[in-house]
Fold each of these.
Amino acid sequence: MTEGRSTGGDAPTGAPVDAHSVAALLTHVDAVVVGVDLHGRVTFLSPSARTVLGHEPALSVGRSVLDFMHPEEVHRFEEFFGYATDGLGSSAQPTVQVRHADGTWVPMTLDVMAGPEIAPFGAVVGTLKTIGAAAPAELELRARLAREDRLVRLASTFLGLDLASFDQGVQEALAQLGGLPGVDRCTVMRVRDGRVVKTHQWCGRRAEPSARHEVPLEWLEGRFGPAWRDDLYFETADHLDDSDIVGLREMDDDGIRSTLAVPMLHDGRFAGFVAFGSVETGRLRGSEFLSLLRSAAGLLGEALARHDAELELAHRARTDLLTQIDSRWAFLDAVTDGLERLASGEVGALALLLLDLDRFKLVNDSLGHLTGDLVLAAAAHRLRDATLPTERLGRLGGDEIVLLLEAANPEGFRERANQVMAVFDEPFLLGERECALTASGGLAVAYPGAGPEELLSQADAAMFRAKDLGRDRVETYDRALADLLSRRFRLESALHQAVRNGDLELHYQPELHLPTRSIHGVEALVRWNHPDEGLLSAAEFVPIAEDSGLIVELGRWVFAEACRQLAEWQAAGRWPLMRVNVSAKQLNHPDVVDDLVAMIEASGADPGFLCLELTETAVMADADLSLEVLGKLAGLGLQLAIDDFGTGYSSLSYLKRLSMHVLKIDRSFVDGLGRSSDDVAIVAAIISLAQTLGLTVTAEGIESKAQLRVLMELGCEYGQGWLFAKAMPASQVTDLLDAAAPFD
């Protein structure tokens, strides 16, 4: 037995519904029942069709239901057929015209239903009754219900629509309105940048679509009343020859004889209008339609305004507001899409070019963050102008801007990267101020199967390599760089243990009093006894410590060991000046003064023979803080030196206020002595400046007798370099300190 539908209690189950039995029951019913399948073919027609419409049911099955519908109402039937088959429930309409067997048209009411319970009859079942069989009150009620039903369906059209399907939803809504008697064309006109433009249109079979895309906003002044709230109605024939209505002749050519335009308002302001066109006159002015069309225009206006807000939010989410280029997430979506096209073979080659503005922090600190934002926006604007249609531009954050490059093959990416970098050749003009700016770039070429974050990481690594090599250049991520990064990662992992396990040691490079060649002091330089790679110089792991945050802990170890060794020498009667390098992060650490005092006291060393060496960059990173900290350190009796002088950006006004004792001339200037007159002039200026300020001068990197001769002629008293000695263990320095004249 087949389980039937429960009707309450223990109702007996029944047999499946038999269409032939139902047909017999409907023989004497005045209503005509018709079943239609999903293809629009008649699957069932009740016997009453013989009496009411003159059609033989057996001969009608298999025919298209449209054969029985009035041509001008086909679109209305299709609309409600769609409602039913989409599972939107039953629908009551006012009247339709159905073809009689004698060729005349019979006005009838129509109800459309769908659902599993009518499956034996087809996908949709329609019930038709002649108008004479329906009381006037019923017809009025049906008309009102149909209007309300249409508004509900119109509103529901926009529920759950995403941004991509919104336009389709508007078209469906206009098609629903086109189902009203007399509505042959629906056009949405919206205000856009001072113009009123067509955004959507539906057109029925009796009229032609409008080719007009714009209406002058000034022409609409006063047409919708002083507050833009009144309807605008006109009939073409009445004004064809003498009217100033824009596009009237076009409407006539399209078959439109009357138009009702209903304004749309948003926040009380005119936002556009919906124009309903008809091939008839008078139909659109009927009171039964005016309220419906006004309500429909209001629903459309609200939906369009909400859609605009959603678009703006989506734009803000996917656009960097400062630079007006892709945000990080929008750009990564584009990279993901590009990698998929690369994997499918749609794109021949793909690459990322990551740009980081050089010394951008200096721009922010010296000119202010507002000016920094203007510079960044100007740089993005130049890059956007230089971007090809196949490329994407995005901002990752801070001053990092990235381009997605496409090409038939990867050979041209390097040249393209250089072309992009050329946008920084000219300075940026900010009002009356010029700002010269460079960038460092990292290029990473994608391979099939790569992920967006992996590609971005490779470009980032190449960019930092470009900065390490001097900035204002592009480096490409390749196997050599990958090996370098792998080694760097291994060293960083091992460095943490090295600091704690005693795998570090200090070597000392003697500093000489040049006129007498006697040892004046030593510079403490850290070395790492790596278990696999042997003795590593500071240049190989100190930058890693800087990047990883280990530099403060490393600096403490160096200073404590230097103090211990100095105390040991002093206890034995040896009194060299001990120079120790201090990083910017150490200097800016809140406990730096207390830490240094504690280590000096713990070692027992005389602080008067300790000299802290700081780079210009470290001192000027926070000049005001440096003034305070260095003043406290000088008050402890420590000497202070600016290392690599001439390579940074010291302010002379700050230099005068800092408690400095020594200027160290950078090796890059010493290297050119004897060959370059410019370097001689620079060194002479540094020595003169130091003498004016009462500072001692030390030259580093002395490697030839020619350099030594020029330095002495310029009046430089102290120096160090391989001409005299390399850095060496403390025991060898002890021997030199004990020698009578080790460098004669």
Note: Residues 499 and 553 are 8 Å apart (CA to CA).
Amino acid sequence: MLTIWNKINKDTLEKGRIGILFFILFLPCLSSLFMSVDIQKEFSDRIGYLLLYTFVLLLPLSFLKSKFYFLFEGVFLLFAPIEIMHLKLLGMPVSSPFITSMLQTDFKESMEVLSSFKLEIIIMLLVWGIYFIQVYKIPNRYLGTKWFRIALIPLFIIWNVTLFANTFLSSPSGSTFSGRLVVSSYRVVHQYYKIFPVNLFLSYTKHLKDNSEVKAMNERLKSFKFGVQSLTPPNEKELYVLVIGESARADHFSINGYERKTTPLLEQTENLVSFGDVLSTANITVRALPLLLSRATPESPEIAYQEKTLPEAFKECGFSTAWIANQSFNDPYVLRIAHNSDYHHFELVDYGADNNYDEKLLPKLDKVLAGNKQKQFIVIHTLGNHFKYNYRHPENFEKFKPAMPKDFSYNEIGKDKRAIVTNSYDNSVLYTDFILSEIIKRVQQQSCVAAVSYISDHAENLYDDGTEELMHSSSNPSRNEVHVPFIVWLSDSYRKQFPEIYDILNSHKDSPISSNNLFHTMLKISNITYPDEKPDLSITSEEFQGDSIREVLTPNGKIIYLH
């Protein structure tokens, strides 16, 4: 009887220890469930996340005995505090930009950060101690039945196939089959960027890949020079700001004639010109940005990787440069430009967060402007009007109703939702109007020769003309997908220094323009010249020749022509 009782106690104690170990291993998961802004909205999202985390956590049990299994998981547990702190501070799991930032932080800065988490560090050390003591005390045997361990891997495969199928079926039906495959694959992989510790591995791998690409690009371009020269006197203070929008449509800006009042502040702004017939050269950000920031064209996209970019042309001319962004922190092309700027800042919160508003960039702009540089060029890359549109603005900008609710999911996408989708999109444009006005206001206060230019990377489908098409990146884009806003504001000092420029801009406001013209326009508007410049490509030049037929580079590399 005593032997049986001892065996029961021993089994109970062993199960208790294993229970404690699993509870500790689930701490990153529990932290995400309560702190990650990306999975808090829907109960189904939480259940899906919990199941995926559980599969990932249990998978090694199919081939490891208990002691080795918990030691293996214990290695990752040592990094769990980083994940939990990141969730606490940013509401998102660890990402590759955070890994990059962490690896670039010196010892002194690291100690300053750690000193603000004394209590958390003590708790962490206690948890580690408890965990490894329990691992030491448990016997080394397989956990679960043989059939349970055999079933883990096929169940994991079935789960992922189901996840992919569900994502594929919920993607916009207007997209091509290949386009839906690409988007669905990306979204499935993106789910693993939320799962600890897989996200650490994926993020670190992405960091190494990006770092390698950036170094290779820098090495390839280190001797490249535009040969630029500023014609403005050195003692004249100059400030030029380029705001890059996201998924903005020109025909939803009331300044361009849209019936809803979506841009009331811009319409009241003096010295401002809005161009109504501008088409982007691409309909997806990863292709649009290189074409926007370089002399590359849809016919010669490789030029973007053979030459330096617009910010670097300004830097070559002696300007202090800054890159302030709310997105694209995973794009090596953008990372290279940003890291070569005198100042750069990325918001590390993903676009899936419902509170990642572009106004977070304004204090960073204030910081750069406080430097009071004599010659300055600043790029502000916003999240703008990216889906989900209701996540792009605070509640006080919800003017057009009914709008998409906070828990609106991709599964609800359909043209029967066009009214609320359009309302939410227009609310995001209203917020863009506010952001642009705040940027102009800050630049205006500098009382110098200054210009603010705004253009979106591409536009957006909104179930137009009864179609099933929503969002962007289709292989055969419509005009709606590339018809972008382009706005230029000039300071009083600028108009006094260059009185003819405003009139020339105004004369071209209805001309057919391509986002390809931005590079040439920005340098010309800044009174910067270079040996092989092309005045006919700058809308600040009387020689500008607009072409009604414009080239668009699609995601699959095909060129189409639109009016």
Note: The two ends are 90 Å apart (CA to CA).
Amino acid sequence: MARPNLALPGQPRSTLATVTSLLPYLWPKGDRGAHVRVVLAVGCLIAAKVATVYIPLVYSHAVDALSPKNSFVVIPVALIVGYGLLRVASAGFGELRDAVFASVQQRTVRRVAVETFQHMHRLSLRFHLDRQTGGLSRAIERGTAGVQSVLRLAVFNVVPTLLEVLMVTGIIWRLFDWRFAAVTLAAVSVYIGFTVAFASWRVHFRRTMNDVDSEANTKALDSLLNYETVKYFGNEAHEAQRFDDAQRRYETAAVKTQVTLNMLNLGQAAIIALGLTAIMLMAANGVQDGSMTVGRFVLVNTYLMQLYQPLNFLGFVYNTIKQGVVDMEQMFRLIQVEQEIADRPGATTLAAHRTHGTPGAIVFDDVHFGYRPDREILHGISFTAKAGAKLAIVGPTGAGKSTLSRLLFRFYDVTGGRVLIDGHDIRDVTQSSLRAAIGVVPQDTVLFNDTIRYNIAYGRVGASQAEVERAARLAQVHDFVVRLPEGYDTKVGERGLKLSGGEKQCVAIARTILKDPRILILDEATSALDTRTEQEIEAALRNVSADRTTLVIAHRLSTVVDADEILVLVDGRVAERGTHASLLARDGVYARMWRLQAEQAAVDRPETEVIAAE
């Protein structure tokens, strides 16, 4: 059974390395507000623990004061009031600590999540094509939840508990003798050692749960995104079976995780019981021989019960932290994945919009490229698209046409040669300015599951309603939109599936018009449409191409007859180039493709006429 492809470079990170990666977010440079809050929270933590360790002392003195002396019992009002105040102080400083640290914790979670999200967008197209989006999203989701767990539990539960252990051990040694302190410290050490060792052994069960959870999530996401395909082939039962297989493996891993947790809890309880029994026997002997008062007996019992309560919780805390660290590990490994495509130091900026400059001139100079080192796709491609010209690229499937547009957009870097815009090697300009200067109308337009207004305005975030409507008019889609009951507020559905192919293409054209790029790529923008719909949006395409350098990647030759130059690609090489008329006169590859498409159009035309008549 295939597993989700989340393999990342490098080895799995250690717990220390993962936690260390979190520290810069907890103490961000230049954020004095966060620094002050952390210091105040630590101060409240110490104050709460000091109050906590004094509670049993005051309590024991109150017990001794209430012991009958000469048949008289004096009510120790001051001690009882002090006891109450200490409990209030312990709880109050603890809550104040959490309140002060809350904003630091949530801001840290936000910063980690946003940085991971931004880094995912900075990674190359190759990275995203090699991995499954459902698994990545789950890794980020679990990672941010893990950050919350580690901050909430490690910083203000583990550290305070260890501090309390040291303080209580010192007080017991001071008030009693070294034997009590030794037994206490030994029991605590065995407890912590057992917890750490056992929990570390359980980590691989959690990792297995994460892997299977990612797989199940990916399968569910892929199936739902391809809802229509599932229905076309009647494979609902098959999809349910695949999902159930992943859930069954998750069930097995989850059961193992729970059973081992029960074993851990049982061992912790046994250690606590043995330590408490030994201390109580020693204290009882002290009361019997008169070396200890009843108040001291109560004191040692109260201290141990007070100490073992957070220790008992420490088992849960440690397990939660280990799980959180495992969840954080993959997210931090994602952050450390190096960018394949990065801006060079001192990269220049291209003029982005048509209103800010002339149409861009494009040059491919002896370009070589392969998606894999052992399989080259483009073999020395060279051509020039002059500013404002329309250059068409045609050829059979697999010739490398769409690869050219990916290189121009710098989704990948060339392995040989260079690509220039306005005389600048695109590797020497910033990616943001390069992509701002290029607009794309793809063959398969994918829209966001939002309104038509949002999808058009995505071309220039912050555009006004008037600008959106102007772009829609130029794209020949405004009249269609206003006839809808909700107009521009109409939801387009997942990937825009509520709209027809032609309607989606017009929205994509409007989005590109609003972007106002200097260079336009029409990547088989009409090949998926019927002839009638294609003719309807040709006017929109002419509007968006006006005064721009246009690169047309086409399968249907009838859409490129007006191009200033046509390149014919075959097996990653330029087989022919020229105008439509000159290529027909040459009677080569282009002419044969033209004749084949003309014959097919002649066959299809009578069928179309019959359908129209019906």
Note: Residues 1-5, 607-614 have pLDDT under 50 and may be disordered.
Amino acid sequence: MRDRKQIELDIKNNPLNGDFYFEYGLCLEEYNLKQAYLAFENAIFHGCNSDNAKKANEHMDKLAKYGGYVPPCSIVLVSFNQREYTQGCIESIRETTPESAREIVIVDNASKDDSLEYLRKQPDIVLVANDFNAGFSGGCNIGIKASKKENDIFLLNNDTTLCANSLFWLRFGLYESDDFGATGAMSLSHVNLQFSIEPGLTLAQYQEFALKNNVPMENPYEFRVFLVGYAVLLRRDVLENVGYLDERFNPGYYEDDDLGIRILQSGKQNVLVHNAFLVHWIGKSFDNSEHSDRSKLLKTNLGKLVEKHLLTKREMQTIDAYIDSGRIDAGIRNTDFEEKSSVLMVGCGMGAALANAGWANPTYEICGLIKGSNCSKITTNLKGCTIEEYTSIDSNPFKEKKFDLIVWDMSTIKRPELSSHIKVLDGMLKKNGTLYIIASNLSFYENWLPIMKKEGIPDTVSDPDNIWEKEIYEPIKSFGFIPSKWVFFYSSSVSDESRKIAEQIKSNDILSEKIGVIFRRG
């Protein structure tokens, strides 16, 4: 039998060769029976030779007897108008997946175009035709209930296009470990850093990219707090345990965040699969719908999510890996690291960006501290980094460790805690380490935010215990630290027009909601 790496290299060079997947299955029988089963199934789908096809079926039967069977997945789509996208999605499923691997379940939410006429002509789908709009969560739940009870569930937006081996690698990843409860695909969206390639290309170009991306990869699995709901594959037993989508989030948005949180609370992991790319034609699911006011929906449903899980606004923001990733990356880029180095983030919130840093820097030790809260009960289950809860910085679980980089978000503490934190963190930093402090910019809240939102100065400005960026220098300097670099973080509420004005007057800092300061010992 050939070496696993040699076979994986052959698949990279020819990802549609069934005989290579047959060899892969033989090899994987020594490592993971379920992944071997999937490889044999993919070998038959991609047209391996007749002898290998016969052997693949024999191996699958044998594996099923010894715990290697993998159930098909029920692909649940919710349709509301946009027939052309639904049709394209269904056709891509047929073209890229074996029939043995899936069941197609379509829930139509009383479309007003010709969607139902098209769907009723499709012989290979399970169709539920609603006479009302059940919303996205409600539609998904109806589809899940209509699916075969033994199947895993693949929640897929109807404005997606599967590419070669998209579903194969999602299923392959789901059965990498018993800890994995859900897997998600890469696409074009910057939300939650789930993008592999920028939008704006043709379908043919994306399909060509997928042939190079959807292949064996050295480090394909990244742990996340949640997975964006355009394409999420779920183990059926995990879904039944945590419950279906919460319909309070109808017609859509944040139901995927909620599901991810519940999966993480259960002790299972949400895993982003970097070698499973598909095309998500972003936002088409809501185009021409009865609920097209996205900004209002986002605000309303965010409030529902915060209320349900008793999270602060800052904690809720950090569920998205995108939010803090730039801050952590800035600290890493400005620190002289050895191959095996250590990073601590104080006030890491949900920890999504820390897990992302752990995936991007697999030789680093990535740690986080979060004050005791409902958030800590969720995020301490997250893999890919080590997050610990603390009540007092003096007794934090990492106090005896030494770190190369400490990233400290000052918005997570109040003024009376400042001195004690500096003293303890100074002792936790290596001699040549970097202290990277992120603090809120008072000028932004006092001046620009009221202008842009046409509201009064926020109540946070009058809180005497808040710590602002301009106030951190003297306390930090008293411990022998010298500021060496500044990093400015724009608020999401800053318009392009405001940025242009700031550039003209050379005052980018006033538009920055937060300012990061790199400190080194003098």
Note: Residues 4-65 form one domain.
